[in-house]
Amino acid sequence: MALFEQSPLSIQIMSPDGRIVQVNKAWENLWGVTLDQLDGYNILEDEQLKEKGVMPYIERAFGGQSVEIPLVHYDPNVTIPDLTRHVEPKRWTKAVIYPIKNSVGQVQEIVLIHEDITDRIRNEEQIKVNELSYNSLLENANDIIYSHDLLGNYISVNRAAEKITGYPLEELRKMNITQLIVPEHHERIRQVIESKFHDPTPSIHEFDLVTKDGRRITLEVNPRVSLIEKETLAIEGVARDITKRKQMENDLHKSEQRLRLAMQAAKIYSWEIDLLTQEVTYSENAAALSDLESLIKNFTEISEIIHPEDLEHSLEMYERALEGSGTFTHQYRVVNLTKGTFWNESHAVAVRDADGTPVRLIGITQNINERKMIEEVRLTWAARLEEAREEERRRLSLQLHDDIVQQLAVASIKLQRVEKKLVELLPEENAVFADLVITQELLHRNQISLRQMAQILHSGVLEQFGLAEAFRKFTQNVDTFLTDQPTAISLNFADNFPRLAPAVENGIYRTTQEAVINALKHSQAKSISVTLDIREGLAFVIVRDDGCGFDLERIESNGIGLASMYERAELIDATLNISSKEGKGTTVNLAVLLEKSRRKA
After folding, report:
1. d(CA 505, CA 497)
2. How far apart are CA 280 and CA 5, in angstroms?
3. Interhelix angle 369-399/560-571, nearest 10 degrees
4. Number of helices and strands (H, E) in the chain?
């Protein structure tokens, strides 16, 4: 009885009618049930055993024969649902079943012994899966997987070798590595193979080979010594085609050289700020290109090199980059105690971690002192040119107002006198009187039109009060250009819009004036809006209409008005964008940097 209970094999004893009489602990552990839970179970009525074809073996045992039952995958949950305590109750078993007879040969009990081979079956299945996966991986790999003997004769290669070298597999397996590797690498590969017998540490090497169609490619190889059959040694490894990578590395190296030379020629150097430590690191050319006596090592020392008047704005740009878009472009002055003050321009971008927190600020800096001098000269000439234009407009305005308009007024007075005399001399010539009235009306209209044009040509309001008031005055005097269709003009001005340099204000005013007049003349718009705003260090003027729009490419090729707008924008270093679609209206967007355009006190 002790052997029965302690047996590692599952044992169950059944009566001749098929009921279970006794089981051992191993049986309960195998199936996850106890004997008292099997009330009513009869092995001869087990449908699962019938379906799996083993019932005839069992019936033979009940008939008096000892029988070995073949391999069965049995699930106790199918026979008696929800009884077993096992999460995965299915078991693979081999079994023997034999009868116990009395002295006269009658079957008294039947003993069934199970051998649980589930783990072995699963391991064998996993080995098969692994072999299939390995073979699939081997044949579908993008890299060459190979082995060759110590003389270099190939033993095995996978399908990738055929694709990379161009040689069929049957031909490759009959080749020697020296037939593929270029001659100048033969000695080196021999040394690598020899070294593997003394130092099995993994190592990577590069060799060139010639493909079947004559191309030279580069392979990255990781060889090792392997025992393949008993005491037979071989070299096996993985070879990756890195030809494109090598070409990219060479191209990148050349590109880096060109970039380094270009940065040196343009006096540009790069830098990086660790936002945790505030430590600043630079490119190797920074010291030579910075024109500073010494580079700061920590961002907290920034006040030592930036001009005091530009320091606050520089720190503001720095904070804005970290809190907002993560980028900034900034011009500022730096101070060299021996060389004086000069201008720098920096471009930077913030690098963030996975949580979106800025961790680094990477940027480049360029000495733009010469460019600033040229800009100042250009702005000076632009201001002089615009001043000359304004002077000419002022002269024309005065000529129109004080000369032509006055002459028309005199002509109108004389016509009135002629009309009075004709009434006395020819009281019945009504047709003549009608023509005189029409002529006087035309003279009056021309007086009004010329007076308005004179006001448009020269705006004294702009000089005295700035863009906002000049735009208000201008829109009140554009009736001359209104068609029969009424056009509403709305104005939207930022309260804090500053005064700009005279040349810049004139350029903005004239460009906006041209945009509004064009819309009134050609767009058939019901409404035009003029917006004056400040955003992210830029002063914006936006003119938008809901008119018929136009083909921008066709108009820009021969439009004098648009050409003059682009010319004025360039003179004041502004950005002009015009967008329009037929039937969708037109938008004119003019932007200037406030930092460069503010009016000097």
Report:
1. 12
2. 78
3. 130
4. 21, 20
pTM assigned to the model: 0.39
Q: How confident is the model at residue 278 (pLDDT cuts 50, 70, 90)?
A: very high
Q: In what order do the strands lie in the sheet with 538-545?
A: 488-493, 527-535, 538-545, 586-593, 575-580
Give the CA angle between residues 102, 62, 80 to the nearest 5°: 125
What pLDDT does residue 212 have?
A: 92
**Amino acid at residue number 257:** Q
List phi, psi (to 5°) of 10.
Answer: -75, 125
Distance CA 397, CA 384 (A): 19
3-state secondary structure of 9: coil
* Helix-, strand-, coil-residue percentages of the chain, each rounded to 5: 45, 30, 25
Residue 236 DSSP code: E
Cα–Cα–Cα angle for 121, 89, 34, rounded to 5 degrees:
125
Distance, CA of 148 to CA of 158 (rounded, Å)? 12
DSSP annotation string for 28-48: HHHHT--GGG-TT-BGGG-HH
Q: Which residues contact 476 (CB under 8 A, 6 or more apart)?
A: none
Please report, for residues 91, 378, 413, 432, 434, the alpha-carbon distance to residue 408 in angstroms, rounded to integers and kept in the order given. 117, 42, 9, 20, 19
- At residue 404, what is the residue type? I
User: What token pair was written down for 209?
Assistant: 């080979």
Tokens of 489: 């003009």
- Which amino acid belongs to residue 282? Y
Q: Is 108 exposed, middle or buried (0-12, 13-18, 19+ CB in 10 A)?
A: exposed
Q: Pairing between strand 527-535 and 488-493? A: parallel
Per-residue pLDDT of 227-243, as tens digits, reads 766 566 888 888 889 99
Contacts of residue 573, defined as CB under 8 A and 6 or more positions apart, other chains included, come to: 375, 378, 379, 592, 593, 596, 597
What distance in Å separates the CA atoms of residue 505 and residue 508, rounded to the nearest whole number?
5
What is the spatial distance between Cα 589 and Cα 595, in angstroms, rounded to a whole number? 19
Neighbouring C-beta atoms of residue 580, cutoff 10 Å: 19
Tokens 């098969």 label which residue?
128
Contact 425, 449 (CB under 8 A): no
Instruction: Give the residue carrying structure tokens 């921008």.
Output: 552
At 18 the pLDDT is: 92
Is residue 368 a contact partner of residue 345, using CB atoms and an 8 Å limit? yes
Find out whether 353 and 371 touch, Cβ atoms under 8 Å: no
- Determine the Cα–Cα distance for residues 194 and 174; give it in Å rounded to an integer: 23
Cβ distance 115 to 58 under 8 Å?
A: no
Contact 438, 403 (CB under 8 A): no
Beta pairing partners, 262: none
pLDDT band at residue 383 under the 50/70/90 scheme: low
Q: How far is CA 518 from CA 397, 458, 462, 512, in A?
A: 21, 18, 21, 10
Select from 325, 310, 302 the least CA-distant residue to 536. 325
Pairing of strands 154-157, 205-210: unpaired
Residues across the chain? 601
Contacts of 273 (CB under 8 A, 6+ apart): 279, 280, 299, 360, 361, 362
Q: Rounded to an integer, what distance in angstroms lies between the CA atom of residue 63 and that of residue 104? A: 15
Q: How many CB atoms lie within 10 A of CB 430?
A: 9
Cα 67 to Cα 57: distance, rounded to the nearest angstrom: 6
